[in-house]
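Notes continue from the previous slide.

Worked example: a multi-chain complex. Inputs as given:
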Amino acid sequence: MAEIKVENLHKEFGIGDDRVVALEKVNMEVSGHVFVSIVGPSGCGKSTLLNILSGIETPSSGTVTITQDNRDAEPGYVFQAARLLPWRTVLDNLLFVQKDRSEETRARCQKYLDMVQLGDKVDKYPGELSGGMQQRVGIARAFSIEPDVLFMDEPFSHLDAITARTLRRELHEMWRQTRKTVLFVTHDVGEAVELSNRILVFAKGGRLEDDLQIDLPFPRDPAEEEVAVAKAQVLRKFEELDLVAS
Amino acid sequence: MTTVVAKPPSPSRGVMRVLKSPLTARILFPFAVLGVWYLIYYTIDSRIFPTPQQVLVFMWEEVTLTSGVRYGSVVSNLFGMFAISLARLTVGFFIALGIGTVIGLAMGLSKSVDAFFHDWVMAILAMPALVWALFLGLAFGFGHEAPVLTVILSGIPFVIINVREGVRNTPKELFDMARAFDVPQNKITRHVLLPALLPFFFAAIRYAYAIGWKGLVIAEVFGSDRGMGWTIKFWYDAHRAHGVIGYALFFIIFALALEKLVFDRLADRAFRWRPKIDAVEMAEGDFGAVRSEAFLLTESQEVGDGVALTSMEGESRDG
C-alpha cells in the first residue's frame, strides 16, 4: 500500500523583503487506493507541493516520505501541458521514461496507449495529435511505468470542456482498474468533487485549511443532485474560508 | 428562406487561378529577368554588355573545357578553380563550425563567458567581409590563408549566435519532466538536449556556409591568385562581362544546389516530426536560402555587415 507522509513542510522563495512563503508548515497523510484532490486559489502553493513531492524542487524545511510497503515508492506524473518530446513518436515518448526497452516493456506501453484509445496512433508525432490526444499520451506515459502513486498537476485545465470531461472519465476508470494512489491538483472545485474521495483545501500563503471527505459512489455525474449539492457545500466552505477570488 | 447554391467553377476562373498561383509567379520570374536584360541590352548599346546567349555559350565552353583560353596551368579551368575554392570553403566552414559551437555553447551556459565574448562577436559580425579580405590579403599574401580565414571570420559569428540561442531556448519543462521520471542524465542529453539544439545548429550551418561562400569569393578577388573569385576578377580585368556574369551564375547554381540537395534533405530527415505546414506556406517556405530551421540572421548588405532578426520559430509546443 502506498503512503505519502508530509511533515512540517515549509517552502519559501526569495530572501529578505522579497521573501514569499509558498507552503507553511503543511502536515498531511495520504494512503491506499484513494483519489485525493488538492484545491485552492492560484498562488496557494499547490503546484509547489507537487513539485516538492516529485523532487523537482526541494523544501526549505520539513520532510516528505513516499513509500510503498516500506520501500521507496515509484511515482508517476501528469503535467499541466503534456510535455511530450516533439521529436519522438507516441510510443517512443512512453519508452523514453522506461527502465528498459524489452518486448515486455513495449507491450506494457502499448496496453496503456490502448487504454487511452490511442493504440492506433503509436507511430504519430505529438505535433500530429490534438491537445486532448497529447494529454492522453501524457496520462498513458504516467501509467505505463506502473507507478505506486500518481501526481497530477491540473492535467485538464488546458483542454476544452467536452474533451476535459471525457478524459476525466477515462482517467477515473483507469484509477479504478489500477488501484493507484492519486494526488490531483486542481483549481476547479467541480472537477475535484466529481473525481475525489478526499479534498485538501489550501489557502493563499500555503496553509492547509481543510480536509474534506466526499462519500458518494463513483462514477459521479456532475448533473446528479447529490454531486451538485456536494459541490455547493465545498464552495460554501471556500466562502467561509474566504478563498473565493474577490 | 434562402438557399445557397454552389456555383460550378467557370473555365475563365480556372485560368485566373492558374495565373494567380505562386507557382506561375515563380516560373514567371526568370522570364521577367530575361526581359529586363534584353531591354537594357538594346537601350544602352554597349559593346561590353553581353546577351544571355553569349553568357550561356561561355558557360557551356567553360564546362566542356572548349573555350580555348588557357591560363597556363592544368588546374586553371572551371573545375580546377572550383576545387580550390571548395577546399578552402570546406576547411574554413568546419573550423568556423567547430570553434563557433564551442564558444556558442559556453556563452549560452555561462553569463560571464557571454559577457566576455558578446561585444567582440558583434564587432566581427559588423565587419564587412571585404575588410577581412583586404587586411588578410595584406597580412598573408596570395596563399590559402586569407581566403580560409575570411570564411572563418565571416561565418563564425552566425554559428556562435545560433548555438547560443539554442542553448538559451532549451525546453526547461522537458528537462523537469525527464528528471521527475528519473531518466538518467546521459539519456536526457541524447534525447532532450541534442534534439532541442538541432534546429539552431542547422541554422548555424546554413548561414556559416552561405556567408562563408560569399566571403570566400571576395577574399579570392582581393587576396588570392586562384579560385572562383580570382577567375571572376580575371574576366573583369579582361573586360569580358559574359565571363563575370557566367562565373557569378556558376557560383549561384552551386550554392543553390548544395542548399536544395544537401541541406534541405538533411533538414527534412532531421525534422520529420514537425507538423506539416499547408501548401501556401510550403511554397513560400521553399524559397531557397530564405528558409531557416530556427533563428534567422539575415544580412542587409552584400558583404554581410548588417544583422537583422527576422524570425523566431516556436520550438517548444509545450506551455
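Summary box: DSSP finds twelve helices and two strands in chain B. The first strand of chain B starts at residue 295 and ends at 298.
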